[in-house]
Design goal:
CATH class: Alpha Beta
CATH architecture: 4-Layer Sandwich
Order of helices and strands: EEEEHEHEEEEEEEEHEEH
Structural class: alpha/beta
CATH superfamily: Ribonuclease Z/Hydroxyacylglutathione hydrolase-like
Length: about 210
Amino acid sequence: MPIHFEDATIRIHKVVASSYGNNAYIIVSKATGESIIIDTPQEADKVMEEAQGTTVKSILITHNHFDHLEGFDAFKGKLQVPIASHASDADKLPSPPDFTMADGDVIALGDLSVRAIHTPGHTPGSTCVVVGAHLFSGDTLFPGGPGRSGSPEALQEIIASITGKLFALPDDTAVYPGHGDDTTIGQAKREHADFASRSHPPDLKGDVLWADS
């Protein structure tokens, strides 16, 4: 299986698994072989094949947009493991989650601790997941900017989530977004500092790039 990151305690697989370029992630405790899957994009079989050889314990949904949920029923039917989301996004899942994640909740995965960080803005229940020096940011934070915002108020909310919660993590924390390439918290801080040094129109929203907005 292609491995995106590995050290003595954790193995991370990154699978591009939809026509929208969605990234699904598999977090594996090397101590136990147990795993957690992040998000349920369209190509469920591709992700589940990558997870073979691990014991999948649960699936965590970063937010309730359709491209992260197209494979939801296939994952649920084949793996039959608990699926979680934040309560604020639960009503738009294909079926109710088996449990909900609140800000600060910790899920044990072998000898690893998987912590939920509620980061509203892209959706009301958007939730990132951090495991040690690895942040799975869903559509909250990308290289170069935040996730898409539907209103100026949502943009301010997602920026507050990023600067108030994600930027509290160490600069060397790797950031694995829901689409595209990785970044780091340190790089995101530098990019945001440039954005914050300039004035912006009050109606700014949508696909905002730190460097160009």
